[in-house]
Amino acid sequence: MKKxxxxxxxxxxxxxxEEVDSAMINVVESTAFIKGPEVKxxxxxxxxxxxxxxxxxxxxxxxxxxxxxxxxGLKPGDEVITANFTFAATVEVIHLLGxxxxxxxxxxxxxxxxIKELENAITSKTKAIIPVHLFGQCSDMEAIMxxxxxxxxxxxxxxxxxxxxxxxxxxxxxxxxxxxxxxxTTSFFPSKNLGCFGDGGALMTNNDELAxxxxxxxxxxMFKRYYHDEVGVNSRLDSIQAAVxxxxxxxxDEYNCSRRDAARYYSTKLQEIEGITPPKINNFSTxxxxxxxxxxxxxxxxxxLRKYLADNDVPSMIYYPxxxxxxxxxxxxxxxxxxxxxxxxxxxxxxxxxxxxxxxxKQQDYIIxxxxxxxxx
Length: 377
Description:
Elements: H1 9-15, H2 17-30, H3 37-50, E1 54-58, H4 61-71, E2 79-83, H5 89-96, E3 100-104, H6 115-121, E4 126-130, H7 141-151, E5 154-158, E6 166-168, E7 174-176, E8 183-187, E9 201-205, H8 208-218, E10 222-224, E11 227-228, H9 239-249, H10 252-270, E12 276-277, E13 292-296, H11 302-311, H12 341-349, E14 350-353, H13 361-376
Parallel strand pairs: 2-3, 2-4, 4-5, 5-8
Antiparallel strand pairs: 1-9, 6-7, 8-9, 10-11, 12-13, 13-14
Helix pairs in contact: 2-9, 3-9, 4-5, 4-8
């Protein structure tokens, strides 16, 4: 059996090696490394895939979040609401721009932002909401957009872990994650479902004016070369990354389908084990399983389980071990652990198992056997 990894990028590469190598060589020979034709083609192809008017490629997902806040004209002191249970990049950019992050709890079942807690957190200083589509499925965007409209708030979707996921509205229509709010953002970090061979990111919007501003901000604030009308940044997707992403985008639905199949296999086997709760798929979103994250009851010693798995060559991860409100960089004396009961429970109970497009049923059977051995020993 092949060595089990959290993410097997090498095997994924070898399946598309000929296409990828040829595409990268073509870029090198063209010497069009920055803003080359591959970037423009990828932009257009991603727009078509997402059915969105505008995609603005950039250097990484964190830049995408920062540029979104800049394009919306938010100011220092403005409040931005987001989930406490997520990666720090979501709040990092808020603080970099001198704004205030307002953290709220998440749902116990799907790990996305709690709608009631979101509503309760709105004040006269609130200007935007950043829902995080965590682990591969959408937050409840229909409810979030209704709240935003009623309170005149912007919505920035953090879609770094859910590209390709579909949100289902109550009327039966669907939209891709990242195309519902004012701006969507995503990351093409190598571990993502659509990942490049370095750093990369993009923003999505159906608003023509926002698209123009985002494009200018990404290029030093220039609408016209050497004329700087905005305070901008230098955040561009390079042509080699775009060439790789063009190939992987054609396979994204296949990749996501493979992840769903693997998740279904895991869940069928693991739901029978006392003390383990497989991830729940909510009824308004498809799930692309960027991570396959279980919840463990207190009867299971998570650290001991992780050690047993590691001793048997099975990797695992904890996403995330410390909530944002307890991170040294973002400590807030005005909140306490009691304000986030679900988050505080999740940081002690979640564990993520290997998940990738190349995961085999043989590998999964081995992982499941080792989990059962630990629990029933």
